[in-house]
Amino acid sequence: MGGELLESSSSPSYTEIFYEHFPFYLSIGMTYDQYWNDDCLLVKYYRKAHELGKQQRNQELWMQGLYIYEALCDVAPILHAFAKPGTRPLPYSEKPYPLTKEEAVANKEAEEKAARAVAKAKFEAWAASLKLPEHKVVNADGH
Amino acid sequence: MAKQIRFEHDGKEYTLEFTRKSIETMERQGFIASDIADKPMTTLPALFAGAFLAHHRYVKKELVDEIYSKMTNKQDLLSKLAEMYNEPIQALMEEPEDAVGNVKWEASF
Fold first, then answer.
1. Which one of A1, A8, A10, A14 would you mutate to disrupt binding with B, by most B Cβ within 10 Å of its Cβ?
2. B24 to A39: CB separation less than 8 angstroms, yes or no
3. Chain A residues in contact with chain B using a Cβ-Cβ cutoff of 8 Å
4. With an 8 Å Cβ cutoff, are A14 and B89 in contact?
5. pLDDT tens for the 109 residues of chain B, in order
């Protein structure tokens, strides 16, 4: 029972199915030799890698959209028809957006370090501008 | 890694495996997969010989037949070879994602 379904003359042979799928695997980077002669399970890993590649590409396109959006926002003030004379665009990000948590932390630390260096330089400049009385070093013998 | 059968004969190691190319070669020579269920005892020698194509293409038919005649537990051998034969095509078929609504099933044999 049911044998007639399996033995239907219209059902394709394994070879036909292999050839039907072959172009797809070629398109995702498999070689002829890998598809036909290598480990038959390799196709699973190529499919998985293809899925990951698609996700990565999608992420990259999303990021690109974000950069374009930011650029448009930055330049928007000067695109305004009634913008005041002398209006300047906002500065574009100096660095690419961090992609990992570690990168974000490192960027934040670097920004804080730079801000501290600026504050220190300002303070030293301010201190140098003050006319403070000079300290005289007095030795123990009173000279 | 694909399913394989390994054994030693006359001091030489043999690895039986099916690749898409070996299945294509077998089908070109007249092998029909559905015969495994209908005529298992006549199909088994051809299936066994086909499993040599991947790693031992140039082994003579006489030697393959000799090895086959010495193989023990042929019923199990047939089921394992059939499983191996189906692997290259199964690997091409996507498994549905594990989600609500998928039908789970099991066999009693």
1. A14
2. no
3. 6-7, 13-15, 17-18, 21, 35-41, 43-44, 47
4. yes
5. 899 999 999 999 999 999 999 999 999 999 988 887 788 778 889 999 999 999 999 999 999 999 999 999 888 898 899 999 999 999 998 765 666 677 777 887 7
The model's pLDDT over A62-120, given as tens digits with 9 standing for 90+, comes to 999 999 999 999 999 998 888 888 899 999 988 888 889 999 999 899 999 999 999 99
Q: At what angle do helices B40-50 and B74-90 cross, to 10 degrees?
A: 60
Show me where the domains of chain B are located.
5-90
Answer for the pair B26, B46: CB distance below 8 angstroms, yes or no.
yes
B71: tokens are 């193989």
Q: Each residue of B15-38: b (16+ CB within 10 Å) or e?
A: ebbbbbbbbbbbbeeebebeebee
Domain residue extents for chain A: 11-93, 98-132
Query: Is the ipTM above a cut-off of 0.90?
Result: no
Per the CB < 8 A criterion, the answer to whether A15 and B23 are in contact is yes
Which of B91, B85, B19 lies closest to A25 in space, CA to CA?
Answer: B91
Amino acid letter, residue A141: D
Kindly list the residues from chain A whose CB atom is less than 8 angstroms away from the CB atom of residue B2. Answer: 39-41
